[in-house]
Structures are given as C-alpha cells and as structure tokens.
Amino acid sequence: MTNIRDLAKMAGVSVTTVSRVLNNHPYVSEEKRNTVLAAIKESNYQPNINAIHLSMGKTFLVGVVVPFIDHPYFALLIKGMAMEALENNYKLVLFQSNYEEARELDALQMLKQKQIDALIICSRICGWSTIEEFTRYGSIVLCEDTRGKNVSSTYVDHYKTFIFALQYLYQKGHRKIGYSIGRKSGSNSKFRGKAFKDFVKDYLLPHEPAYIFEDCLYFEDGERVITQIQKMADPPTALLITSDEVAAGIVTCAQQQNISIPSDLAIIGFNNQPIAKMMNITTIEIPLVEMGRKLFLQGIAESQVIYQEIPVTLIERNTV
Amino acid sequence: MTNIRDLAKMAGVSVTTVSRVLNNHPYVSEEKRNTVLAAIKESNYQPNINAIHLSMGKTFLVGVVVPFIDHPYFALLIKGMAMEALENNYKLVLFQSNYEEARELDALQMLKQKQIDALIICSRICGWSTIEEFTRYGSIVLCEDTRGKNVSSTYVDHYKTFIFALQYLYQKGHRKIGYSIGRKSGSNSKFRGKAFKDFVKDYLLPHEPAYIFEDCLYFEDGERVITQIQKMADPPTALLITSDEVAAGIVTCAQQQNISIPSDLAIIGFNNQPIAKMMNITTIEIPLVEMGRKLFLQGIAESQVIYQEIPVTLIERNTV
DNA sequence: TTGTACGCGTTATCAG
DNA sequence: CTGATAACGCGTACAA
C-alpha cells in the first residue's frame, strides 16, 4: 500500500504538497500538482481513511440503534437515514439492540470512543439518566418526545394523535374502543396509554384492560387480536392499531372468521404503509422515511438541542 | 480527553506498561498494574478506537450492501448478520445501494481504504469484473451462486429449487405455469429464468412471456399480478412467487376478486415468512436469518474461498 | 519486568 | 507557493 510519503518521494515534493493536491487546497503550482497527480495515478494510491479519522478526530460514521430491523417501522426510518447519509457522505453503523440494554450501551460506548460521530436511538430500553450521561461525548438524537430534556429529537406527539383518533372513533358512534401497541414500556407507548386513560375518563367510557393488546408488531399478531376478541362476551367495536402490518393481519383474519369490518369492528391503522392502501385500511399517516432523514440531519448538525415535531394525517378509507 | 501518555505520566510508568495493562498483557507487576488501573479510573480514560485501528490495520467493521432495507428478504439477512456480528464483537456498516452502481462502488472503496474489514454484497448491479478487481483489498462475500469464481458465497441453488417447484406443480396437474421475480437482471433471477426455460422445454409446455411477472417485491405488487391475470384470455393456473409478501398480496387480492385459490390459481411462495404461515400459503422455506449469519462468518474468516449452499424445504399448505 | 523509540498515514502549523 | 515538523493515540520491536 503506497502512502502519502511514497507519493512525495515519487513526485519529488514534500508530503505537505501531496496533501494539498489531495485535498484540493490552494497554493500549489500547476506544475507540481500535475507531477503529484501523475504519481497518484501510477501508484494506484488510496488514502487510509483511518489515518484521516485519527488526524481529524471525526469518522463520518453515524450509529443507529433499533431493536430489530425486520419491521417496517424501523426499516423505513433507516431507509430515510440511509438516504440522507448518502447525500452527506456519511455511513450508517447498525446496532440491533433486541431491546437488551447491553447492546445500547455498546453503541453509547462507541460514541464515547469516537468511533461514531453521532448516535440515533430509534427505540430504547435504557433509562433516561444513561442517555444523559453520554450526551457530553457526542451528538445523541432520539425518536421520541424529549421536550424539556437535553437531547434533540424528531418525534410524533403520540398523545395528541391518539386523542385525535379516539375522538374520531367516538364521533363515528363507537363507545367500546381498544388499542394495540408494540410493547407497553416504550416512551411512545406510555404517551399513548396516558392518552387512552385520559380519553375514557373524559368521555365517561369504561377503561377495559382487555381492550388493550400488547406485543402487536407483525402481520401475524393480528390473528391473536381476533382470537382474543372472539372470546370476549362484550368485545370492542373499534380498535386503534399502531402498525398497519398488524391492522392488515386483523383485517385478513377477520375476513376468514366472518367478522365484518367495519360494521362489527372498526380499525384505524398507523403509518400508512403501502399495505394499508392496498387493503383499504383507514390509517394515520406517519412520514417515517422523512423522519429518518430528519433524525439523521439532527445527528450531524453541530447546533444546540432541537425538538422537531412531525405532524400526522388521517387517511380515511374503508375500515371505519 | 486523556490519552495513554497522560496515564503513563499519572501512574509514573511508561506508555508501554499502560498499554500492557490496557490489553491484559503479561509481564507487569501487580503493583504497577494497580497504579495504572487507578489512573484509568481517576481520569475517566477512554481509548480512541481510531488510533487503535490505524495502529492495528483493522476496524472490526463489516460492510453490508443491500438495495433497500425495507424488504423482509434483506431485513432478515441483515438480522442474521447483526446477530453474528454482535457475538463476534463486530459492527455492521449499512450501504443502501438502491441498485445504483455508484453506491456499490462506495462500499468497495471503503474496503479498499481499509475502513471496513470485509464486505458482504447481498444483491448487486455491478458487473462481476468490478467485484473481482476489489477482491485483493479485502474479504468480499456474495449471496449468490459463485461456484467457479474467486469469491466466497452463501447461496441457494435457485435453478435446482425452481425446477423442483415446477415439477411439483406439474405433478399436481398444472400445465400453464408462470412465476414472478423481483428484478429480471439479478444473478438469482437469471438462474430462475433459465430453470423456467429449461423446464417448459423439457416438459413440452408453452413458454408464455406474459406468465412472467417482474418487479414483484412487496405485498401490494400482488394486486398487479391479479389484475394482469384477469385480463388474460388464457391465464396461468399456477404461479411461483419468489416472495411470500407478494404471495400474500396475491391471495388477499384474489379473495377480493372472487378468484378461488388454489382451484382457480395455485400459488407457491418463497422464504416461509410468518405471513405465509398465517395465510396458509404453500411456500419454499429459505432460512434467511441463518444465511445472514453464515455470510457474516465467511466475511470475517481468514480462510480461502468457500461456496456454501443452503438447502431449502417445501412447506405444503393450502395454496396448491 | 520495564521503558525507549519508532511506525501507522494524514492533517495542520509555521517558517521560509 | 513550498516544505520541515509536530501532532493525532496507540501498539510493539528491541534493548535493558
């Protein structure tokens, strides 16, 4: 592997001059520049990027923590980040945490060790204090409402959104409403849970724990929801389903079980994934790819803490 | 940021000694070791990993090229790689190529520049000669049949598999058989195309171009397949669908259009994704997560070229 | 058992 | 315009 010093020798100039032409810096005569360029061609020179990183104290690497990539929600966020990373000449380092705290700490460590310039955490299990402790080592960005906290974020106001969706169902005449979530302990889920509680209280509806379905992430989880509902003496008439994948599973399974949608059961999905369009599912659009882009840009921005709320849109189709 | 030299000064020893305790090397007295350890604690020392990489000529980073992450096929491969990377203390660098050659070259460049130790290309658009040119800069692994070539791979013999599936349909009485693929130009697709051609020739069946559906990647693409079939005067009676997602879309859409499956149209999906189980789709299981693991291990292995064929299994359910 | 000195490849500073 | 030379932080022959 030929290095910058070899080039200097070949071209009969100093390493400084070589570095100058390499980085398109001014103050180098056309003549010498050409000699160096020739040497570069001839030697098939490739800069060692680790040396550059060491010298610059920067890696152009951004870490991304997701519990798993094989879910449209995270896949779409990453897709957006990858697009933006590309345009800004950064690369993405993937951390699949599987919601193990040790994995999240790994990522945080890499930030501390300067192997990545920034870290984007899409979903976390670790406590807030842990995050806070690492903020001084580099840029950390979260995908949840961090208002009032010392960390930038791009987020959806899930409280507001849930209230809005619940009111919509209420107006359509529904009084027995339930919802599904991915996992109950997440930050976003907590906002949703609180919204639900507040809503049923305000509208004098019963708070029926059986109407809340946890661990609903994939298409096939829809089957479980339908199964459970069929066992109920007094089933819900409408459901907020926080992933279109799951909503699609519910609709599919309902058809098989001769449950009529929306007359027996109304469904509102989330994200407006393509599958929702094809299956005519009423859904709340969340621009995940766009969110991914913004998360990334916040990560590489030098600026101060910013909270970026993303607006959502109700897409009315045939399941309500 | 305190470095190894500061520690040496603090502990009153040399940098070598510090380095020794840092890396658990022998030949350092318990006494000095403790002094150093104390200094590390006190100073909140963190090694700069870029310096280590420069010094060692290794990064513990492995690159992964996929056209897009938001597809179960690639997501599952990556999932497997991420799991294995975790166990081996490596990190994954994600390259979303979108099938643009320039993106693949970016990744290849990083290998050349030593920013990644190995590169796994799950699907490519670039020519074989391009790959070959970069093999000397580091370990490259492909997810396609590379037998006879100079690059390791973990692959499914899609020719064999397609012939097998076609024969199965033939035995079930089907004579008008078609198939769908993601993109026609891929290596895997070519093997499938060849298998199809050879099969219809051997079995004296007509080679009907309209029975071949391209660009079928997502659930919603199933709708297009059904639409096109309905327009045909002489539609196929059976379809090989190279992604369960698409198969599920076809089944769903067929229901809506009152096309009976399998009596009007038989379907064999691929991958055995959870959605196939839930919708009772006959499918060919491909252990994608397992393949991801093996791809990764081949990437970090020092050994010579290895071709690792992955066996597949037919899962008989209700769509044939 | 310990330490000196150099190499890794590049960028940045500063004197000419 | 040009070029020594000093960082950057760490690993490791080699010498003691």
Automatic annotation (TrEMBL), chains A, B:
Residues 2-56 form the HTH lacI-type domain. Keywords: DNA-binding, Transcription, Transcription regulation. SMART domains: HTH_LACI. It holds the Pfam family LacI. One of its GO terms (molecular function) is DNA binding. PANTHER family: CATABOLITE CONTROL PROTEIN B (PTHR30146:SF105), LACI-RELATED TRANSCRIPTIONAL REPRESSOR (PTHR30146). This is LacI family DNA-binding transcriptional regulator. It comes from Bacillus salipaludis. The lineage of its organism: Bacteria, Bacillati, Bacillota, Bacilli, Bacillales.
